[in-house]
Amino acid sequence: MTTFIDPSRENFEAFKALPRDEPIQMLNLLLYREQAQYPEGHEHAGKGWSGRRAYEEYGKTSGPIFTRVGGSIVWRGAFQTMVTGPSDRQWHDGFVAQYPNGSAFFEMIKDADYQQAVVNRTAALIDSRLIRFKPGEGGNTFG
Question: Is the pLDDT of residue 77 over 80?
Fold first, then answer.
């Protein structure tokens, strides 16, 4: 099974081509490594952290930047079972991050402190999905 941690060039170019002046929501699906895999020489290498622990470090170190650009978590959940989709695909956690606009997301990922923090995310995950949505209205029907 193919796994994904970072966007492909093609997917990132498609993301960059979308409007940057409207709110966006990003669905994040996470599958943690049993043992975090840091680059040799990194300050957390050899600490024996789990992938979940490394992702918590990512949250702690990227959180101030995420907040500064206007980001917020609008939904968070723990995976239970696949209802529609491949039965061999499982996730540990999922959440939806909301940004005031696409430019805020770019501001975050270009921040030097964020770029240092993202090493924790890479060390933490064996697989992930990051899917951009244009926010819509809620309600009590599916359509």
Answer: yes
